[in-house]
Design a protein that fits this description.
Largest sheet: 7 strands, mixed
Radius of gyration: 24 Å
Shape: elongated
Helix content: 25-40%
Strand order of the largest sheet: 5-2-1-6-7-8-9
Number of strands: 16
Strand content: 25-35%
């Protein structure tokens, strides 16, 4: 049998599963968790830990996650990080569901059989239809990594860093059909320094969001959370649309702070890229390179000599790119296609006296 098919059958919903194989323990309230990437694992881990406590009133009765996908540079079809973690924790494979769409009727039928009292989402990555939202007794709550109603959408952390915000947060809110618009049960705000990147901030916010969730679960189960939840002010809402791969390119006509914030925001995926020209004065040869820009900072000294506005210089361990508005960006770490990331010093030494020109 095809290995990919075996894997798919192993973790996907079995619509013919009997109720006895999926029925939760009658002693605890069944909770369904929905999540997919690694940051979601933090939340699932917190739920497993809390559910195993002697006085716990709930159990994780099932997991919903994205279908298996190619990982490790496309070589292997693997389950999502959440599915892998759930399997490692000993959750039966027939309680790990990966429907193509959350509105799939076979999946919804099995979900109804589980009789969940609550569903929790954290970076699940799929739209939940009304048919889904009507199933759990106490509704569905979502951990959203922003201070709602700010940055509703698929990329709240990335768009916040791209905007250079100095404060952000994480919100625990009820899920409604309108995008990230449900009443907020609890939130926590954080100061954002000018060097933190999206993967670090995402990890921090979901970690803190899991603490909010565990703290608020009793009020969600007893119904008091709905009474205290604060409706969002839609007039103050901002959007955080999904990032497109072609946004990765840097334009040095922009000011340095804009580029620095973009590097921080797009770290991880899709990354940020720039094209440069390597000039050999001795041979007259020119070679165009594509660089992935990994780490930057804003240059405090922006003096650029006449005639050097298009050239990259090296100063105290950084590549200095002249930018728009008389500013300059220090690039501390780069990566060539197919190579490992290296610091600016190693890259500059590898040029062996050749000049570098921005494109």
């Amino acid at each position: 049998m095809n290995s990919a098919l075996m894997l798919r059958r192993f973790i996907c919903v079995n619509a013919s599963a009997t109720l006895s194989s999926v029925a939760p323990s009658p002693k605890k309230k069944p909770l369904i968790f929905l999540g997919s990437p690694q940051v979601s694992v933090t939340v699932l881990e917190a739920l497993f830990d809390a559910s195993s406590a002697p006085n716990s009133s709930f159990e994780v009765a099932g997991i919903v996650t994205q279908p298996p996908a190619r990982r490790d540079r496309g070589r292997k079809v693997l389950p999502s990080p959440v599915a892998q973690y759930a399997l490692e924790k000993g959750l039966p494979s027939d309680l790990i569901f990966s429907p193509e769409k959350a509105g799939d009727e076979a999946f919804l039928s099995t979900l109804r059989d589980l009789q969940p009292e609550l569903c929790v989402t954290a970076a699940y990555g799929n739209i939940l239809p009304t048919k889904f939202l009507n199933i759990p007794v106490h509704g569905t709550v979502n951990i959203h990594p922003s201070s709602l109603p700010l940055y509703r959408g698929a990329a709240p952390v990335q768009r916040a860093l791209q905007d250079g915000v100095q404060e952000t947060g994480v919100s625990l809110a009820f899920t409604v059909r309108k995008l990230d618009a449900g009443a907020v049960i609890a939130y926590k705000r954080f100061q954002v320094d000018d060097q933190i990147k999206a993967p670090e901030l995402l990890s921090l916010l979901f970690s803190e969001g899991s603490k909010l969730l565990i703290r608020e679960l009793p009020s969600i189960f007893d119904g008091s959370a709905k009474l205290k939840a604060v409706p969002q002010d839609d007039s103050k809402a901002t959007l955080a649309p999904k990032i497109a791969p072609d946004e990765a390119w840097l334009s040095f006509d922009q000011e340095a702070f804009i580029l620095h914030n973009k590097v921080r925001a797009f770290a991880g995926w899709p990354g940020t890229r720039a094209k440069v020209l390597v000039l050999d004065d001795k041979s007259g040869q020119q070679n165009e390179l594509e660089l992935k820009i990994i780490t930057t900072r804003i240059c405090q000294s922006t003096e650029v000599l006449n005639g050097e506005q298009d050239y990259v210089t090296f100063k105290k361990g950084s590549l200095v790119f002249p930018c728009g508005g008389g500013t300059a960006l220090e690039v501390l770490e780069v990566q060539l296609p197919g190579k490992k990331a290296i610091d600016a010093t190693a890259f500059w030494n590898g040029l062996r006296g050749q000049k570098l020109k921005k494109l």
